[in-house]
Specification:
Shape: globular
Strand content: 5-15%
Bound molecules: nicotinamide-adenine-dinucleotide
CATH superfamily of the largest domain: NAD(P)-binding Rossmann-like Domain
Mean pLDDT: 95
């Protein structure tokens, strides 16, 4: 089947053809992101593939439908960027990659936490400058610290296991408890309030939904331990960034490790180093020495990218052969976390 691939990165150009070798879809890559203005590029393609930064709002859906698009194969697990009701109205099916490597994301969350706590970027830069002083580089042991994991689905549960390896005391909040984790005594579930109160470190692993939008805001910061470390590798919209900045300024938040940012679209995955950053909130965030940020790269391992490519192509094959779409998301899809596990 002919597939137009929007927001194509170099790794998409490498891994999709590799995985497509025996599947045989006809792939066309577009560097440009999908917006209503670029939807015309989809003309002649019943199937397109999109990424997290593409605009899949109502107007884009309308434009896509006019150009004959019937299937959007997301190369992501999250689908908060999609207007599902609009897609359904236009008769466009949406499929996603529900799981590709929860380890990739959890491991990146831990990498960020360790690098932030032990000041690795600063220490490395210093050593390269032949400055071998330890001034200002002291961290703390993760061993014995209480870590609050919000969301213990596929990624959060891997995070719980990794943190247990460090000897952390792990507490968690989720709509549904993971019985296996509880039975293995790796975690104790608490209320959100208790998690805020008790945690030295908080790591976010819930999806972005209307219910979790700005889950972390000024009132939640106020309930947390002073100096708490916040790790967000899930979605930027879970945190009110302006209120995070206030909490960092007051010292209520001791440090933040972020792989995602609520206004990342149009910034992340682009090289703006020769231009300028127009986003004042992000610019302020980047001035804090106790903020460590990466550009939505937690998924970026060889294993995860291969799985994303393969599942995307197989999702399209199911559509082409008229089979039930195993990984379809619908407007009526309620959040059934157990079914997704
Ligand atoms: P999952 O569906 O397996 O788990 C999500 C968990 O959140 C579930 O256990 C669910 O019960 C819980 N949850 C949902 N709504 C909740 C609420 N309102 N309150 C409390 N708990 C709630 O998802 P996953 O595979 O673990 O992925 C989690 C998120 O990680 C994704 O939605 C995505 O946003 C993000 N993600 C980020 C990257 C990255 O590269 N940074 C990559 C993949 C996924």
């Amino acid at each position: 089947m002919k597939i137009a691939i929007f927001s194509a990165q170099s790794f998409d150009r490498e891994f999709l053809p590799l995985m497509n070798w025996e599947i045989g879809h006809e792939l066309t890559f577009f560097d440009t992101s999908l917006r209503k203005e670029t939807a015309v590029l989809a003309h002649g393609y019943a199937c397109i593939s999109c990424s997290v930064g593409d605009d899949l709002g109502g107007e884009t859906m309308e434009a896509l439908a006019k150009n004959g698009v019937r299937l959007i194969a997301l190369r992501s697990a999250g689908y908060n960027q999609v207007d599902l009701a609009a897609a359904e109205k236009q008769g466009i099916h949406i499929v996603r990659v529900p799981a590709y490597s929860p380890h990739a994301i959890a491991e990146h969350a831990v990498a960020l936490l360790l690098a932030l706590n032990r000041h690795i970027p600063k220490a490395s830069n210093r050593v390269r400058d032949l400055n071998f002083s330890l001034e200002g580089l002291m961290g703390f042991d993760l061993h014995g610290k209480t870590v609050g994991v919000i969301g213990t689905g596929k990624i959060g549960s891997v995070m719980v296991k990794i943190l247990n390896g460090f000897g952390c005391k792990v507490i968690a909040y989720d709509l549904t408890e993971d019985d296996q984790l509880v039975r293995s005594e790796m975690v104790r579930y608490t209320s959100l309030e208790a998690l805020y109160r008790e945690s030295d470190i908080i790591s976010l692993h819930v999806p972005l939904t209307p219910k979790t939008h700005h889950l972390i805001h000024s009132e939640s910061f106020a309930q947390m331990k002073k100096g708490v470390y916040l790790v967000n590798t899930s979605r930027g919209g879970l945190v009110d960034t302006k209120e995070l900045i206030s909490a960092l300024k007051s010292g209520q938040v001791g440090a933040a490790a972020l792989d995602v940012y609520e206004e990342e679209e149009g910034i992340f995955y682009h090289d703006l180093s020769v231009g300028m950053l127009k986003d004042d909130v992000l610019a302020r965030l980047l001035t804090f020495p106790n903020v460590l940020m990466t550009s939505h790269q937690a998924f970026f391992t060889r294993e995860a990218v291969s799985n994303i490519a393969l599942t995307t192509l197989l999702n399209v094959s199911e559509f082409e052969s008229g089979k039930t779409l195993s990984h379809q998301v619908r407007a009526s899809t309620h959040y059934f976390p157990l079914a997704a596990r």
